Amino acid sequence: LRSTVYGLSAILLLANTAFFLFAPPYLFGIQRMLFNTPSARAIRQYDTYVTTRLQVIQENFDPASTAILANGRNFRLPAYYLPDYQALDLSARFDVGMAKTVLPPPIHTLVFFDADVIPPLADGLTPRIISLPDGGTLTYIQWPPGHPLEVSPQGIR
Q1: How far apart are CA 30 and CA 14, in angstroms?
Q2: Same domain, yes or no: 81 and 13
Q3: Would you say residue 44 lies in a domain?
Q4: What is the block-wise mean pLDDT of the chain (157 residues), using blocks of 10 residues?
Q5: Read out DSSP for 62-127?
Q6: Contact 30, 16 (CB under 8 A)
Q7: What pTM was computed for the model?
Q8: For the chain, what is the domain count?
Q9: Which residue, 18, 70, 128, 139, has most beta carbons within 10 Å?
Q10: CA 146, CA 18: separation in Å to the nearest integer?
Q11: What's the pLDDT score for residue 98?
């Protein structure tokens, strides 16, 4: 009986290890969080996604005048990794669909951490794009300093 338990435990351990090391980042090729696998490749891919964006934001945007909007599983990242930036509750409020958030001066730049978080933009707000080393892009908008901006899931005005 004891050897059977050890044998089954070893098989289970080997199967879990193999899955962790060799599973694709997403099951069935569907790139949604629900199908994200807890594999080494998925963890590396996500780490690259996050660290690349954090580095580009820190190198290109002034914390005193920049807010960052993220959503989904990333909504807490700006507040945790970029605490010197403005409106740290913006992503949390946006992610739960709360009413508009006003970004007051001195904020005049809004960076979209994720491409799928960009709501409709008012006329005159033109998205700008930075190409990232990992092949992705980072989108942001700027508006004249001294003017507030309203942000909600329904749009940015």
Answers
A1: 26
A2: no
A3: no
A4: 90 88 75 70 90 98 98 92 96 80 98 94 96 95 97 94
A5: -GGGEEEE--GGGTTHHHHH-TTSB-TTHHHHHHTT-S-EEE-TT--EEEESSGGG--PBPTT---
A6: no
A7: 0.83
A8: 2
A9: 70
A10: 56
A11: 67
44: tokens are 């590396």
Q: How many CB atoms lie within 10 A of CB 52?
A: 16
**What are the backbone dihedrals phi and psi of residue 110, each rounded to the nearest 5 degrees, phi first?**
-125, 120
Annotate 53-72 with DSSP letters as a single string.
HHHHHHHHS-GGGEEEE--G
Question: What is the maximal distance between C-alpha atoms in the chain?
Answer: 75
Pairing of strands 149-152, 101-103: antiparallel
Q: Looking at residue 34, what is its pLDDT?
A: 57
Helix (H, G, I), strand (E, B) or coil at 130: strand
Computed on alpha carbons and rounded to an integer, the radius of gyration of the chain in Å comes to: 20
Task: Say whether both 26 and 77 belong to one domain.
Answer: no
Best CA proximity match to 103, nearest among 52, 64, 130, 54: 64
What's the domain range around 5? 1-38
**Count, residues in the chain:** 157
Degrees, nearest 5: CA angle 82-94-143: 70
Tell me 42's DSSP state.
H
